[in-house]
Amino acid sequence: MTPLHPSPEQFRLEEVLAAFGHPVRAAIVRALAPGEEMFCGAIVPGVPKSTLTNHWRVLRESGVIYQRPSGRKLYITLRRGDLDARFPGLLDLVLSEESFGQAA
Amino acid sequence: MTPLHPSPEQFRLEEVLAAFGHPVRAAIVRALAPGEEMFCGAIVPGVPKSTLTNHWRVLRESGVIYQRPSGRKLYITLRRGDLDARFPGLLDLVLSEESFGQAA
């Protein structure tokens, strides 16, 4: 079953900022920034799966990522187009800060 | 005693984003955006003082606000110059989203 994702008009800036505002989630955003879909287990390999479960939820519910289930696996993409359309410049600004996503 | 404030080179983007990423803190940033120093009790009058204590700490430790004690009162300013120097465009981008700080 595909989990629920907000539509861009449902995005709230505070929620997106809060999603970006954690070292592990920042590392996930950084890893997904090139744009390719990734297997969820390959994105931040050092972080335990149980820790990640909550982070996937925060990222998905705020609109930052898209989760595609395939069998028992989850594949993740950054919703760059939707984020750029809704909050122009935000993702580029955040990714332009070199330290962003390097501390996890 | 003046509480501890980070210097701009100590600011971390994830911490600033996390500070912005809460409805009450967003409302505080919005209220302080015009630039004037404000008495802490006048910024978000509907929010209980005990709730605010934690928010002042998060905002101060991330570098978003400056707290000036005067007798038993605290006066607050937005560190716009330091934020703009460290993360150019971020504060303007966040404030340009009309809904930011309206939900508290």
From TrEMBL, chains A, B:
<dbReference type="Pfam" id="PF12840">
    <property type="entry name" value="HTH_20"/>
</dbReference>
<dbReference type="InterPro" id="IPR036390">
    <property type="entry name" value="WH_DNA-bd_sf"/>
</dbReference>
<dbReference type="GO" id="GO:0003700">
    <property type="term" value="F:DNA-binding transcription factor activity"/>
</dbReference>
<feature type="domain" description="HTH arsR-type">
    <location>
        <begin position="5"/>
        <end position="98"/>
    </location>
</feature>
<dbReference type="InterPro" id="IPR011991">
    <property type="entry name" value="ArsR-like_HTH"/>
</dbReference>
<dbReference type="InterPro" id="IPR001845">
    <property type="entry name" value="HTH_ArsR_DNA-bd_dom"/>
</dbReference>
<protein>
    <submittedName>
        <fullName>Transcriptional regulator, ArsR family</fullName>
    </submittedName>
</protein>
<dbReference type="InterPro" id="IPR036388">
    <property type="entry name" value="WH-like_DNA-bd_sf"/>
</dbReference>
